[in-house]
Amino acid sequence: MEKNKMTNPGEQLLCEIYKNANMGEDSLCMLIGKVKDEKLRRDITCQLDTYAGYAQTAKNKLADMNVKAKELSPIAKISSEISMAVNTMTDSSAQKLAELIIEGSTMGIVELKKQITAAKNENAPEHIVNFANEVVTFEENSINRMKEYL
Fold this sequence. Notes:
With 150 residues, this protein is mostly helical. It has helices at 9-32, 38-64, 74-88, 94-121, 126-146. It has a single domain (9-149), classed as Ferritin, core subunit, four-helix bundle (Ferritin), CATH 1.20.1260. The protein is 77% helix and 0% strand.
């Protein structure tokens, strides 16, 4: 749903969670084929599963509010694919892949934190804010796991 049509700050926050999880999942799916390190592959697979769970939960919560979750635009997906291809063209080492994952997670945290602040200022339901904070904590923990590969 478009932001300007939303009447509820909880909806906006859930849409951001869905977008974040969806983008994370898509990005990791693009990278996993380049992974040679088995431990990194397991870590990424675990991260993928968690993103999928968060996306589904956000989608279900939006459906409960009679809001359809907005999928990533084809342009956003293509842009992400091109960026991943360029960034891994000459270096697809575990270190480089971890660096890209850290960068993506950091962007996700920044966007979610901004939305959380806005949602709190507009008195969004506490359970939705808590869910968003759970996703931020997951992203932070993912960054810490990826630091092992740097």
